[in-house]
Amino acid sequence: MKTSLPIKILNVIGLIVVVIIFAMPFIWMISTSLKTLGETMIFPPKWLPDELIWENFMEAWNSGPFLQYFINSVIVSVGILMLQFITVIPAAYAFARYEFRCKNILFGLVMVTMMIPAQLIFLPVFLNLSEWRLLDTLWGLILPFATSAFGIFMLRQTFKQVPEELLEAARLDNSSEFKIMMKMMVPMAKPTLITLGLFNFITHWNDYFWPLVMTTTERARTLPVGIAQLRQVDGGVAWNILMAGNVILVIPILITFFFAQRQIIRAFTYTGVK
Amino acid sequence: MKVAKWRPYLLITPAIIVFLVFFIQPIFYMIYLSFHDWNFISPDKTFVGLENFKALLSDPMFLQVIRNTLMYTFFTVLFSISIALLMSIWLNRRGWMYSFVQGAVFSPHIISLVSIAMLWMWIMDADYGLLNWILSLVGMDKVPWLTDPNTALASLIIIAVWKNIGYYTLIIIAGLQSIPKHLYEAAALDQTSSFRRFTKITFPMLSPSIFFLTIIGILDSIKVFETISIITKGGPLNSTNTLVYYIYENGFIFFKIGYASAAGVILLVILSIVTLIYFKVLGKRVHYQ
Amino acid sequence: MAKIQLKNVSKVYGNNKVMDDMNLEIQDGSFTVLVGPSGCGKSTTLRLIAGLEEVTSGEIWIGNHLVNEVAPGKRGISMVFQNYALYPTMTVQGNIEFGLENMKIPKAERKKMVDEIVEIVDLTEYLDKKPQNLSGGQRQRVALARAMVKKPNVFIFDEPLSNLDAKLRGQMRTELIQLHKRLGTTFIYVTHDQVEAMSMGDEIVILNKGHIMQQAAPMEVYHNPANQFVAQFIGTPAMNVISIAMLEGKLGKIIDERIFYIGFRPEHVEIQTAEETTSGIHLPCELLTIETLGSETLYLVNSDAGQFQVKSFNNPLMNTEKIHVTIPFDKLYYFDTQGNRVYVDELPFESMGKEVRGEVLI
């Protein structure tokens, strides 16, 4: 069916409006981050600053121990990522490929855990961590996420799709079970592992809730918590500095998204239902 | 194939330990605490039975918190799904233009809620915000979005919907693409109108996706914390205080551990019911294939 | 050296007994084909020998070793799978080398062995390709090379040709036969295709419902089937089997009371073209369908004794409705009520005297 030209044009205009609604706030964020404080307090607002004030970024960065926050963020995100691979791969493999007693009950436990949000259990975990002297440490931010029910669930689906014949061939080739897992299954699950890795990294890089409740000093705080504190600097809110801080937080993610859009979308929209 | 009996257990042990220590034990610990009175500092936990629950349910503030949470959840999910449904039918096309728009719409979903909260705080600023400027263009007065008890919760819902839509849209598009083409071909041969095509084929075939989104949406919205903690702190006048923020306030600011735990148990009950419905229906399958 | 023996082997899955007390001996150096309909237990037998499944009871011997507790990789067996089961993340070289690597064979030696093998299967230029980029026939060769490189005592093939098109299949069949001749190793080959079984094996084991129906050389199986199942399974089209009651009046009085069924192969039925006939059962028939296959013609006919098939190497009979056929007495097979073969020294019924029909329809 052919669409008439006016409708086509209307359609394109509609698409542009949608993009504006979703992209404009980010452009506004960047624009604000380069303004002087005075330029933020004008109505009607100015779209572009007269002069690009790059110093805002320095000011935001220097208004707290941001290097520390940044390093903490990297350690936490990467640490969680690595621990999850270590715990998730074997568990997913066992659930996908072995029969054992209580398998269904144990997998049920994984599914139940998948439905427990951090927001439900933070109080008792906080009390536990304080008991174990892990409060305000990076361990307290990493260990609770050292495994992922979602990851086990997703990787198990992938492992299940590998034909049994391949494993049998490997066994006839005198391969150890460990080698089968690491040399055959893991390479075959590479797309899933990349997906999972992206999902985890972005989720924990962005996370604000857990580091907020599990830290009491700046020692173990991460970037999002640090950025959120920017607004409490002086009496009034310095929007230009605040937005500069947020640009620092957002840009790495947006750049990753730009280059790995397909994988990231696949990671975040995985429902397990095919 | 002969496999040592202990091997699978060895493989799952690390994961299971983490689950037990950081997810399962805390649930029981929280239930235990909800029957006690404790201020975190004193060594004693006093058993008080159901007192915490009684106090909660007779506290008008808590009742308002519940009301806020349910309103927030209901409208966030409702608007997210309805708008996403329309968007997905519109955007479910091939071509770079559409995939670019899909990517743009999705981008808020991967941005830290900290940035989203602060960005919208700025956009919704009563004096210098972008939103009030747009309103002024069409001749409307400035709205004190986040500082008026009447509009604060609605403003938070707008932010949540804005963040959610991309995700919801892509899930529904995936659902649309899984509808077999031959159904539409058969409908075309039967001279079905496009309205009936939507109500009789598209919508029923989408019901698994929509059901999934409803559940995910409820689970996600009910635990809202970040935007509230950063933007409103539950105010003004308690109008945006929701369950998780209330637990946080009572536990971390007022040190009423037992009381906060009791509120946590109520959250647990709500989440359990929603999850149970999910698995029940999933068992029956909202499926037409 | 590598004779294989199954002694009283049973295999149970849950409540389902797929193999009951099986005894099987596979001679060293033989090309043994296990054949039977799906679910007959042929694949289970194979997997038990390979060690991919555990026996429920009984013993499996390879050479002089009881291998019940031996891991699959340590049984000296190579297997070629139906879907090739090539490791998709490894190159051709990696696939072939994988088993050697696991045997801790030094790299230089490995390289020599791989080169030697790929030379034989003609894959030298594909060493660095991934299996996904190969054709079906090439994948088949990689699978073969991977099996051969380990120099096993026993080769096991699980329907390896079923994914190939007809032409390639014929070619691979010949190559496998030649390969067996050259290597002189024990081959165990599973298929559901009796043509494949007949053409490749020097020994055929016919299985049904977890039991061995007959084990013998191909021509022996064809000429001398042990029971009705084998008689009807081997040969295309299948042997005609008619209840003896249907032939009342066509035969003399039956002397041997064990006989319940009479069987005869379609290709042994003679279509009467002259007055003189062989001594046999004479039946007037009505032609129902004709299938012309070029060198031969298949007829489905109906007679007083019921429908049966006739295979003829003469030119097809077009525009003919009625024929007379003769089933020679010396080509008859006899079975009892259980379908077991009844062996007789002479005709088990009284001859009705030589009756020559004058009526020639063609």
TrEMBL record, chain B:
State the superkingdom.
Answer: Bacteria
PROSITE patterns registered for this protein in UniProt: ABC_TM1
What kind of membrane protein is this, topologically?
A: Multi-pass membrane protein
Q: Where is the ABC transmembrane type-1 domain positioned along the sequence?
A: 66-278
The transmembrane residues are 9-32, 70-91, 103-123, 152-176, 201-219, 257-279
Cellular location(s): Cell membrane
The main location class comes to: membrane
Q: Which InterPro entries does this chain map to?
A: ABC_transporter_permease, MetI-like, MetI-like_sf
Q: What family name appears in the similarity comment? A: Belongs to the binding-protein-dependent transport system permease family.
Record protein name field: ABC transporter permease
Q: Origin organism of this chain? A: Oceanobacillus caeni
Automatic annotation (TrEMBL), chain C:
Which residues, by range, are in coiled-coil regions? Answer: none
Which keywords appear in this protein's UniProt record, sorted alphabetically? ATP-binding, Nucleotide-binding, Transport
Record has Transport as a keyword:
yes
> Which terms in the Gene Ontology molecular function aspect does this entry carry?
ATP binding
What is the designated name of this protein?
ABC transporter ATP-binding protein
The protein's matches in Pfam families, at most eight in alphabetical order, are given as: ABC_tran, TOBE_2
Record keyword Nucleotide-binding present: yes
ABC transporter domain span: 4-234
Q: Which CDD domains match?
A: ABC_MalK_N
| Entries under PANTHER family matching the protein | MALTODEXTRIN IMPORT ATP-BINDING PROTEIN MSMX (PTHR43875), MALTOSE_MALTODEXTRIN IMPORT ATP-BINDING PROTEIN MALK (PTHR43875:SF3)
Q: Which InterPro entries does the entry link to?
A: AAA+_ATPase (IPR003593), ABC_transporter-like_ATP-bd (IPR003439), ABC_transporter-like_CS (IPR017871), ABC_transpr_MalK-like (IPR015855), ABC_transpr_MalK/UgpC-like (IPR047641), Mo/tungstate-bd_C_term_dom (IPR008995), NA-bd_OB-fold (IPR012340), P-loop_NTPase (IPR027417)
